[in-house]
Every structure is written in C-alpha cells, then in structure tokens.
Model the fold of this input.
Amino acid sequence: SVKGNAIVGPHFQNSVYTLICSGAGGSISRSVTVTVLSPPPTVTLAVAPLTVVQGQAAGLSWSSVDATSCTAGGGWSGVRGTRGAASTGPLAADTTFTIECAGPGGTTTRSVTVVTQPAPPTLSLSADPPSVLEGASPTITWSAVAATSCAASGGWSGERPTSGTEMIGPLDTET
Done:
C-alpha cells in the first residue's frame, strides 16, 4: 500500500484532480473534483445615534465586501448600493432597519434597531401685561406640549391643566 498527501493550490476555479496508480496487476485511475466557493458577503450596518427622540431621525451607514447588490428592508426599503449612507427619516416608534447583501458566495443580512424615546415636554408661559401697578390683575397664559400634568408654585399654586389662561390678583407690593 502506498499512501501520501500533497498540498496543491491556490486555485480560483473548480479543478479536477486525477491520480493513476500502476502495479504488477494493472493500473487504476480515480478523479476528484474540488469546487472553489466564493466567500459569503461581509456586511456592516451602523446607526447613529441608536436612541432618538420621537420625531427625530438617525443616520444609517453600511458597507459590504464580496457583495454585488444590497436590498433594504424593515424600516426602509429598496435596492441599495453595496455601500452608502441614508437617513431614517422621522421615527415615531422603535424601528428595525435591515440590509441584505448578495454575492457569488451567498447572502448576508444585518439588522439594527433604533430606539425612540418620548419627546421631553415644552412649556410656554407668559404674563399680560408683564408689569402691573399695585391692585391690577395680570393674565397668565401657558401651554405645555408632551406634558400630562402641570403644577403651579410661587405666586400661585395647585394643579393646572396643560394649557390655559388665568387672571391673577389683584396684586400688591406687600409680601
């Protein structure tokens, strides 16, 4: 029995390897085909920032190696280049963005989720007029957005609705 091994290559295409062995009783031939496969695409998908306030957007960027085409899915869609950047557009809720890149070696998919947070409340508060003579009564006007409750303090107190108008006074100079 004769045994052996050999290292051949590198090869970049399918190859047939044939071995013929001879002896006193004749010869024998065997062939084996080695298929060279392309590597699957390597894909990177990044988002910044990962967390946004509802109504804001994040930036997406992706790149691939050994890919010939990429397709977006989830929170975005359509055929994309094998590398690029895009905006998510305003987001109302947590959204997952997916990129699937295909090449001779198969398909690779990457996903990233952008998390949304509720918008912080905003409040406008004004007095009309802002300066009054003693004994006068100014009107306080307020409006809160993305708020569920309001509480007054200082010269007035107690719970208030998230928007309204209230006459205060009459005011005097004594504390």
